[in-house]
Amino acid sequence: MSATITLADVLDDAAILSLEHQLHLGEVIGSHSWNVDLREQRFVFTGDRDLTCSRVHLLGSAAPGPGSWLWAWANPTDYPEPLTELSARVRDFGRQHGIPELASAEVPFGAVPGGPAEPAFEPARVAALLLDAAKVVSGSWTSYHAEVGGGTRAAFLIEHPDFRLPPPAFPRVMRVLQQSLAELPLHDHRRALYGYARGRGLGAAFDPEGTRLAITSPDFSIDVEFDQHNRIAGINAKTTSGN
What we know:
The chain is an alpha+beta fold. The protein has helices at about 5-30, 80-95, 100-105, 125-140, 170-185, 190-200; strands spanning about 30-35, 40-45, 50, 55-65, 70, 105-110, 145-150, 150-160, 205, 210-215, 220-225, 230-240. Helix 1 crosses helix 4, helix 1 packs across helix 6 and helix 2 (about 80-95) packs across helix 4.
């Protein structure tokens, strides 16, 4: 990524790969309850499948009262440093690239691209967006956020070997792309699809004019055409594996 990027760019880089990880998380844990011990740095799911995460990272919290997000590195509570170190890495990235929403201790909801204009907006939206930004910086792609009282939502990145995605298969990749285009607030489709393909280990190459993107694997190919606004104008996909 270049030095001149915005939070909207980072969110596009994250959006589709993040969605696939969250869909996979749901497949792994099913119907569940959760519990976290921040002092012991222990995050546990119980329900359809009992699972203890191998690592947990507190990224921050979104509170409806002030209508703002507070990064974990700036929280006055004396949390263990390993619990908040990823939030500090996000801060340093924000400072390096001049992205105030990542570098500032507290971020008003209305300052987040795709977030709400009113502080009364559900904090879940802002928590999800800023978790996505943190995924690009940290390389940790599975997240969880939940209410912890008074409408405030705590946001975590969580790790476990079972959260790793399976190899990309044609039906799954197409389903993820279709769901992303229908549901996600992408600012730049061209950037988002390229970022997803690269993050998924797929081939990704633009034509000389930059208006077509070829996404390739040994088993399938997806050719995407973009309009002058970097939005998708057409998709042609085919598989060679019979899937």
